[in-house]
């Protein structure tokens, strides 16, 4: 069984993430969505809320692609998480050249730690290249329309956060 790991904070999961998940799922038999517990980033949503949103968004994708898609929280090194879930492939999304430099360094470090785990980059679809969770949160906080960037389920969660 070919297992892939798509890591991120997913705070919140966006249309860009869904695009990468859908396409990544076509490459593997099981796609694990690694939900990073990153205390330094200070996420808007709790780990439980992020996992819930991912599970909600991925249920139909799993059926659509025929690939098992599961959420898996992690707080250790990415390469160790990949080992923990049995992943042979790490799936990463790229939006712009700026992403590439950071990702290039990460791949080098991960390969130095475990050269048996490959990293595959998927370019975001053109319509999603500007979509970033940070920007979506900012638009929502300032009462902008985020309909193009997140699902109705995630939009509802975001608006509820900022209504408080």
Quick overview:
46% of the residues lie in helices and 20% in strands. By secondary structure, the chain is an alpha/beta fold.
Structural class: alpha/beta
Number of domains: 1
> Order of strands in the sheet with the most strands?
3-2-1-4-5
Strand content: 15-25%
Number of helices: 6
| CATH homology group | HUPs
The CATH topology comes to: Rossmann fold
Q: Low-confidence segments, ≥5 residues, pLDDT <50?
A: none
Q: Count of DSSP E strands? A: 5
Main beta-sheet annotation: 5 strands, parallel
Radius of gyration: 15 Å
| Helix share, percent | 40-55%
From the N-terminal CA to the C-terminal CA, the straight-line distance is 45 Å
What CATH architecture do you see? 3-Layer(aba) Sandwich
């Amino acid at each position: 069984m070919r297992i892939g790991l798509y890591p991120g904070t997913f705070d919140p999961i966006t249309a860009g993430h869904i695009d990468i998940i859908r396409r990544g799922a076509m490459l593997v038999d099981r796609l694990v969505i690694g939900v990073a517990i990153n205390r330094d980033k200070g996420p808007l949503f709790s780990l439980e809320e992020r996992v819930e949103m991912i599970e909600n968004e991925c249920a139909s994708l799993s059926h659509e692609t025929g690939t098992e898609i599961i959420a898996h929280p992690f707080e250790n090194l990415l390469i160790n998480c990949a080992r923990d879930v049995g992943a042979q492939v790490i799936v990463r999304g790229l939006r712009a050249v700026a992403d590439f430099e950071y990702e290039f360094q990460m791949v080098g470090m991960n390969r130095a730690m475990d050269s048996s785990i490959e990293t595959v980059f998927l370019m975001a679809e053109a319509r999603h290249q500007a979509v970033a969770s940070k920007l979506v949160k900012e638009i929502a906080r300032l009462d902008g329309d985020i309909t193009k960037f997140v699902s109705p389920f995630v939009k509802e969660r975001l608006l509820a956060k900022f209504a408080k």
